[in-house]
Amino acid sequence: MTIDSVRGATGSGLEPELVQLLTPEGERVAHPDYPLDLTGDELRGLYRDLVIVRRVDREAVALTRQGELGLWASLLGQEAAQIGSGRALGPHDMVFPTYREHGVAWCRDVEPIKLLGLFRGVDHGGWDPAEHGFHLYTIVIGSQTLHAAGYAMGIQRDGVLGTDRAGAAIAYFGDGATSQGDVNEAFVFASVFNAPVVFFCQNNQWAISEPLEKQTRIPLYKRAQGYGFPGVRVDGNDVLACLAVTRKALREARDGQGPTLIEAFTYRMGAHTTTDDPTRYRLKAEEESWKLKDPIERLKAYLVRGEIADTAFLDEVEDEAKRVAADLRKACLELPDPGPEALFQHVYADPHPLVGEERERFAAYLASFEGATGE
Amino acid sequence: MSELKRFKLPDVGEGLTEAEIVKWHVAAGDAVEINQTIVEIETAKAVVELPCPFEGTVAELLVEEGATVDVGVPIIAVDVGGGEAGGEPGGTAAENAEALKEDLVPVPEEPGMTAPEEPKRQPVLVGYGVKPGATKRRARKAAPPPRPQPADGGRPLAKPPVRKMAKDLGVDLSAITGTGPEGSITRDDVRAAQRPAATPAQAPAAQADEERIPVKGVRKATAAAMVASAFTAPHVTEFLQVDVTRTMETVRRLRELPEFAEVKVSPLLLVAKALLTAVARTPAANAAWDGDAIVVRHRVNLGIAAATERGLVVPNVKDAHALSLPELAAALHRLAETARSGRASPADLTGGTITITNVGVFGVDAGTPILTPGEAAILAFGQVRDMPWVHEGELAVRRVTTLALSFDHRVMDGAEGSAVLRDVGAMLEDPIRMLAWN
What we know:
The complex is a heterodimer of chains A (about 375) and B (about 450). Chain A has 14 helices and seven strands. With about 375 residues, chain A is of the alpha/beta class. In chain A, the strands form two sheets. A five-stranded parallel sheet of chain A has the order 1-2-3-7-6, with helices on both faces. In chain A, strands 4-5 form a two-stranded antiparallel ribbon. In chain A, a hairpin with a 2-residue loop joins strand 4 and strand 5 (about 210). Chain A is globular, with a radius of gyration of 22 Å. Chain A starts with 6 loop residues before the first helix and ends in an 8-residue tail after the last helix. Chain B is an alpha+beta fold and about 450 residues long. Chain B folds into three domains: about 5-105, CATH 2.40.50.100; about 150-200, Irregular (Dihydrolipoamide Transferase), CATH 4.10.320.10; about 215-435, Chloramphenicol acetyltransferase-like domain (Chloramphenicol Acetyltransferase, 2-Layer Sandwich), CATH 3.30.559. Helix content of chain B is about 30%, strand content about 20%. Chain B has helices at about 95-105, 160-170, 185-195, 200-210, 215-230, 245-255, 265-280, 325-340, 345-350, 415-430, 430-435, and strands at about 5-10, 20-25, 30, 35-40, 45-50, 55-60, 70, 75-80, 235-245, 285-290, 295, 300-310, 310-315, 315, 355, 375-380, 385-390, 395-410. In chain B, strands 9, 12, 13, 14, 15, 16, 17 and 18 form an eight-stranded mixed sheet that branches. In chain B, strand 12 (about 300-310) and strand 13 (about 310-315) form a beta hairpin. Classes of the chains: A alpha/beta (about 375), B alpha+beta (about 450). The interface between A and B is medium-sized, with 33 and 37 residues. Chain B: Keywords: Acyltransferase, Lipoyl, Transferase. Chain B: InterPro entries: 2-oxoA_DH_lipoyl-BS, 2-oxoacid_DH_actylTfrase, 2-oxoacid_DH_E2_comp, Biotin_lipoyl, CAT-like_dom_sf, E3-bd_dom_sf, PSBD, Single_hybrid_motif. Chain B: Its cofactor is (R)-lipoate. Chain B: Its EC number is 2.3.1.-.
């Protein structure tokens, strides 16, 4: 489906405005509200990010198919939305991701192997959120938007907005999450408290098997108006536009101008997760039409045509991506299994008598199997 | 030095227990790389391709195509050569799980000596819910003794949905002793109260009420093709009622001709000829969608859907457009015979360009046929029956049939689809037109 079938979009006779700085053909276009001037190094850096996160993602899918991971939510097709917004982040910003933000994690220097622990079932998220400014993956749909709104209100209360130490919160979520009550509450709180939070919705058109028209009758970004803050739709497959739009929203948030809803219009090229089969509910033709809007191909075309990158650079990135994937595979297979007592370790920061008692009981239960050979 | 590694069927879907090997992409002796697709498997959730976790040479495929294997069973052995020693440290998650299982589960040593079978715990498929009766957990502690129900006429304890269920089933709650928390009445209690005492003996009989037919062979291929077609090609179906009295007359006349003495002449022959003629006038009907192009084929391989004992097959008459009417009749006759006897060759069954399905033989008027994958149109031909019909300005009893044409809307628009259907209808109404348009 496309947004054209949504009443609000066709009723006005106008296509929803989509901020785009790089066309699917790789032509650079200007936008009055979102000027963006990047150096060759920065442009090449974005390309490298896109290629590596796609390769990492592919490796994780393969590892799942080989029984090494229990599950994986592929980001295929959404690389630009994640890298563009991820590279707009500053050191004091705090990210509240879903379980698909592998590209944003990459931008926050979370090593790819750290993402795998959760999906291999050996830990609950292997990184320090404070160190990376990147919260743990949230599996529950939409609840992280509330965390982000609350965190943003905390920043506000630190009294740092408008200074060099100002940060903003950014919540990532999908089109399906917009139907959750949590997201509505987060919008309300962020709005009335003017909290420094950016709501970054990756509208990938499908909430598992539910198409966008089951979530909304107007373009999602227009919902922001009802809450009283700006909303903008950006071409989610255009890394430059995602960067520029997110930069502006974050800057405004840090300056105390309140929240923004960004709808990154993109497409989930793969399955919802490795346990999903999209051929059961969507048409191949739709996937084919989005292939033409591939985020990596358009940047590649732009770099090559503008002589910003040569074949040697592209090959080098390809090789690096391969190395990162091989290292990831090796590290994944080497991830140690946690002992049974690990279950009790992170319930409370400090020792807790009840948890301690439960740990001992569990240990005794396990010990009762010693020497047992079955009934 | 050669070292064999075996890849065990992983659980690729959060709680699957088994999968069917659909297709091997490699054979013994093939070199394989890490992440190269080696096999397609079909689970309860999806068909997925499995990438190879090793680099080396395929030593042996351990499971045949079509077999259903349990998760954890090795499916392929790969000779990883002498390059790296040691294998993966720690083993794979699957291997560890297997090792754990071996530690805990006693393995019967002789076939005669079987361990008492515990009810197997069925994992729950995420998003698919719990199978009724799938979880048979051992109770952690003894259930609390059921509390006697209030004898003073107080309401027995039961949640509202259970009350509703009891009401629907006509079960008196006050006559039940609850086994739930606080002695409350559960759904199971209500069900147990509803059943007469002989329930256990009846259970197998209830099973006999239904039969599970494994989906394989033609049924499976048909299902796959129909789903693929219905989900890829946007179908449009148009209908037309036609007075075929003259066609039936023509069929009778043809049968008397010496040229048709050896072959069977049926209305299908004229429907086929009419369709071939219509296709010549609207070539888009004999086309295929190929992603970035529409392939219009100049030769017509006319498929005829045939119900056989093995299931639905669609053999086709090659170059049907070039055949004379007696040749076409002979070809259709031969095709039906071969298909019905189950001897249709792969060549007969592939390469079709357009299809006729004769649903009339089943005694129905019409259907909305699903395209044969790779084709742009399919014509359904309903039963011919006597109907009141306005003929030459007067009500008359005429021989009437219904035609239904489904076409791929990516390839053809309503104008072209309608043209084909209208042409076929016109020719069946007045077969002389076939001469005019041929």
